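## Example record

The block below lists the input lines for one assembly entry, exactly as stored, with component labels intact.
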Amino acid sequence: MKKLKITGVLLACILLLVKCQKSAVFPADQYNDQLSGGDETVFDATSQSFGNMFTGLSTYDEHVHKLGDLVFNQSFVTEPAIIHGGLGPIYNNTACTNCHHNDGIGLPTAGDLQSSLLLRISLPGADEHGGPVPVPGYGLQLQDKAVFGKVPECKVNINYTEQLFYFADGESYELRTPTYTLSNMYLSLAGGYLLSPRLAPPMFGLGLLEEVPESEIVANADPNDANNDGIKGHANYVWDAVTQSRQLGRFGWKANTASVLTQVATAFNQDMGVTSSVLPVESSYGQSQYDGLKDDPELPDSLLNAVKFYAQTLAVPARRNTTDATVKHGEALFIAAKCASCHRQTLTTGVDVTRPYLSNQVIHPYTDMLVHDMGPGLADNRPDFGASGQEWRTSPLWGLGLVTTVNNPGYYLHDGRARTLVEAIMWHGGEAEGSKAYFSNLSSADRAAVIKFLQSL
Amino acid sequence: MCFFVIGIAGCSKSSLPGTTTIVSSALEGQVLTDFSNNLVNPNYQDIQARAFVMNVAIDSLVANTNTANLVAAQTAWKNTRAAWESCEGFLFGPVEDDSYDPDMDDWPVNKVDLDSLLASSNPLTVSDITPLQTTLKGFHAIEYIIFGVGSTRQASQITARDKVYLTSLAQSLYNTTTDLRNSWDPAAGNFTAQVINAGAGGTYFASRQAVFLALVGSMSDICNEVANEKMQTPFAAQDSTLDESSFSHNSINDFTNNITGVQHAYFSEYKGAAGHSLHELVAAKNASLDATIQSQITTAIGSFKTITVSYEQAIYTQKTQVKAVQAAINTLQTTIEEQLVPFIKQNIKD
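Predicted structure tokens for the full assembly:
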């Protein structure tokens, strides 16, 4: 009897251990595939579904997250100010949330209060770290707004040309091609510069993606297409201005940013003109708009850290309708079309004993975090470290089906040119040419199944 | 299968012991209908009506800039503000998704830019100010002009430029309150239908549970914002200029109306017209939780009466009372987060 008891206790211990080590023990496909963010998945399909805090944070961590949430939603104002000063002198928007509305994507417009599109600019070639070359008087990003009395760098004009296309079965679809022109330049700008539009991406799940081991990401790379499948993803190694070192690029449409901290500090600095201890130089330094104030860094470290932590601890919305037969069929087609070769369904975060909420999580982000040639149609022709002018990071697809709810009507791709998921698929080219062709040749019902699957993410 | 069950049992963070029967579906539907028809729509209509009165009062002030008209404009501002702050007890749906909140109530005022703008000769019509930063518009920009720093504004100090700007600000605010009203109005944007038909044809909410979670989430959020941001920021810094309504010295009213908005949300009530409510749903299944929530709401709202001076003064002279009010609101918030949210998840299944 006693032996039985001991065996029982041992068995319970083993089961408990097994439970906590699930990624090492179980293949991913045995997990509940609703849990896109592992333990940090939230069952929320409302317009607020991108803005939920992780569960399991300590009381202190919850406090920091909530502080970050407040700052994320806070409008910044011109110095000298009683609080939340540091805006500008030149900027793209006044608050994080104005671009990342509802912690989601934004509108592909420029110059309005709720505009979420900005343009990167550079000269051809590479700087001493292999990165883009700043344009004298403009830097690496165009700020199209300014505080009162200062002049914005330019006005960004967006025009679309519509074109009608047909699937193999005769059904039609439209694609709109954007062109970007600059006007009202504050300073003459010689030709030959390179532009790249960037739409504000969703905020959730970033901490989990940051925690995926570099080795796991690099292991999926196939730069020389050794397996001969036509897909040649590679890592983008970038110069990280915060750590002053070469790092794996993880974030941004071209994976040009190494960490959430760098992403957040760069957004404060470049998008809002708010300096921090890690990026203390005003974006307008050396330009006529420079304020000359000795107030840098403008953002206290505690607030920078809080926003960083906020961005790291936003939970991933759960999938819906995962058992629906059409969704299942669409998923099979998604895999058959080799979409999942880049939009990898499963990654596992590394072990981090100091941050158990990020540690050892099996997640389903639908990205390999590598950059791929997407063809000339999507190309910005502006290299960004190791990402060429045709290469883009595989965009995570988790939460995709909620975009129309969170950011109605919803826009897709790096510049928001796609208005529907069908358009987004049909813009794929380069390494994804085969997958696009597969989708294009499907029956109307099968294409709808693929879309229904994507809407379940 | 065995592993899966153990995994679920061990990992579940929100499961509660107790009943598994669900609340009457019919009552849930009645609550959503009355929440929309007895509270949200009348509240938004009231904000618009009061903004109209403020618009007229500001027109009078601009036409005849005297003390009586200044006081009338200030009173109209406070009345409009009261209706607005009250609706912050249930801040979800178009008010957030369409940015009506920051359009009307961004803070702080960008004082440097606002002073420069008024000192300039830039045009200030409604269409001119539409693209301006939200920190140059809305309630607090109007407050800055008609109350002034330290609530010291005299009618004689209001300049010609102030008057032009004030007229456009008031009109712009009124336009936004109209958009907000229309967003829920069954005859216009009809977000009401999304709430009433949640989980049954509505496209916005996947289920009724989602609406109730959005509602109690917003009740919790405003408690956090009042106790731990609006009250705490100036209190911790011992700086009354950090009060949200520091120009008008209206902050205590703001806070009280915010928490009264939570009460309204719990009872589907506005101006005494109550209907089927969240309170009924909770009471039907857990009378003790309902009594706790009711009592904590009453205590939190009542606690503001212990502060006998403006909040601008209280942070220096009535610190004990300030701390007690914060504690009362935080207690309510904890109950909402730790008991009401799980209650919704447990009992509202459709």
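The first helix of chain A runs from residue 2 to 20. Chain A is about 25% helix and 15% strand.
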